């Protein structure tokens, strides 16, 4: 069957499922079975088609509806973290890869620029920060900035600032993704030049073992916030089978859920930066925290969504 015939034959059914959602568990189950059959057919004969991506998203949405109608004691909060957010990330993993790619390229450019221009680090990080860090290096405490304020105050300030940066990265996606790309690029250049600053002084390993204790979660969350912003921007640029307005509404909902899902990550990163990073930890302990943080990010945002999606699909 040609793709156009397949779409024409099933469009009314798909629109009914999407525009008139049912709360009846039996009807939801019946619709879900029909939809997964259509998705299996589309994946077999039109694997790279827009209709396949559309059906994949609609199936995930139906699955969330089934989860919400299960008669158990799980709250909406638990359902969101256990099912809804991971399935949403399965749909967004291409944009997550794009966000990570932009950030890594910017890091490399920041590193190379700092290596070839002695004034670049001051331009990016500011004279005050550079002078303070140089003074700390002379005192034998290159990362003494993390000991400069009260722990509780530092925790609140850092956490709120990180959440602000994440939501700004998400909101800038309204500018057809360009605002989000600019935010990712700026933060990547800043990180690259920052790390070169310590490398130039023979302190790269010290800085990694200190900064990435909290930075693993913090930087990962910024990249994921970039994914949220790109989701919004791409919904405007590439509406697919939806009208541009409907696509934009879907993009806003999806991007906002991703951004909200990052709040606990930033709270954990703020706690580590305020209470743990300032400590003089053995390299084994610092490395373990970094590896555990990285493993969690990879598992929850990449591996678990793929595994969950396979359980949803026949």
TrEMBL record:
Keywords: Membrane, Transmembrane, Transmembrane helix
Entry annotated with the keyword NAD: no
Transmembrane helix recorded as keyword: yes
UniProt cross-references to InterPro entries, sorted A to Z: SpoIIM-like (IPR002798)
Ranges annotated as spanning the membrane: 95-114, 163-184, 219-242, 254-272, 284-306
Top-level lineage group: Bacteria
Name this polypeptide is given: Membrane protein SpoIIM required for sporulation
Annotated source species: Spirosoma utsteinense
The organism's taxonomic lineage, starting at the top: Bacteria, Pseudomonadati, Bacteroidota, Cytophagia, Cytophagales
